[in-house]
What we know:
Shape: globular
CATH architecture of the largest domain: 3-Layer(aba) Sandwich
Distance between the termini: 12 Å
Strand content: 15-25%
Mean pLDDT: 95
Radius of gyration: 23 Å
Amino acid sequence: MGLKILFVSAEVSPFYKTGGLADVAGSLPLTLKKMGHDIRVVMPEYKLIPAEYRKMLKHICHFRTILSWRNEYIGINTLEYKDMQYYFIDNKSFFYQDNIYESNAKHIQYALFCKAVLDMLPHIEFKPDVIHCNDWHTGPLCLYLKEIYNNEFYNGIKTVFTIHNLKYQGQFGTEIIEDVLGLNFYEHYYRGDIIHDGLVNYMKMGIIFSDIVTSVSKTYVEEIKTPYFGEGLDYALRMRGDKINGILNGLDYDEYNPAHDQDIYCTYCISNLEGKALNKQRLQEELNLQVNSEKPIIGLISRFYEQKGLDLIMAVIDEIMSLGLQFVVLGTGETKYENFFREYEWKYPDRLSTNIKYDHSLAKKIYAGSDLFLVPSRFEPCGLTQLISLRYGTIPIVRETGGLKDTIRSYNEFTGEGNGFSFTNYNAHDLLYTIKRALDIYQNKKVWEILLNRGMESDYSWNKSAREYLDLYSELVY
């Protein structure tokens, strides 16, 4: 008999996306559905949901949710997409805004979202075996289910809480314990189960009150139990002991498939790689780079934040550009990084292309047209870009951390093993050395073809990871 699962996320692709969380929420449930389980997905109904999906929404019910002294209207709208049932929590005051994550009311938004999800279940007549919560936005749900929603309908519902990035925790002043969360201040403040560094911490709620905690790679799970990677919450994670599991994120192999991808210049597959060379030529033409098939192209697609290792690139950019390569950059973020890449595009106009924007179509063209792909992160819970690059026959250069370490094995000249290039220390000259090493191997076309084929043949789809999640769900339910 199949399981009943509710997948709860602040963002879900293709409805609203700012990062990898949306990709996971958009693809993992679909895989679980195909395995014969009744899985449904719920997210807030944001103003920024594209009109093509908004017009498909059907209203099914509405009710009031109590959040401390607030009495808020909640509408439940739904649509079916790829045979999956999606629910959208409608409250215009808190979700119908231009920029959700920069709102001053995030503490109310996501506490309301969590309560509304729980209140929704009897109205839609769906009692899940497991509620799968994702990141800090859903931490209060785990608390509410244990502390408040303990009547007959909710008894027996289990929670899985997945940490996608521990750095972002949802920290707010202690006044919200009573004013927003509607909890007893003294009980929870002095018990310490929701407090960290004198602030209410939604991430900690999920860690402490869920039945099982997971994160998105086995290495990252071990890293975040240490002070260096633990972002202050390593003690809380260690308290959970063996109730923390590392399950690697997968990739949607239907969306990211160079054999059928209509966003790239020319489709190709492992048995016919002529299209890969044409994608490189067309990328050079579009981005005003020198058209030269022998010039290796390194791609970088990233949010421009310190986590992503951009400081390493800044320290050795002239040395990198002296290696006779072309560099294609796509992303947005902190101004200092945006200005840096703009400045060096001016310095190297026919060899460095800077694209300060979010452009999904251009991103795919970069994956398809590049020879190498750079991911020098200081930390990386899982990472999807290195998996996408493998899928498109583009060889990753990564730092050995989190999911990068779990998925990319550095090429060994003596054994022939490996699927990319990696370096261990967070050091600019280690990065530079690794780029030089990759370029040396690039000159050996026979070896390079082996690496390219190996990457395209690898399977980082969701199938294996989805089965691991099902094992966890079953452990909780049966």
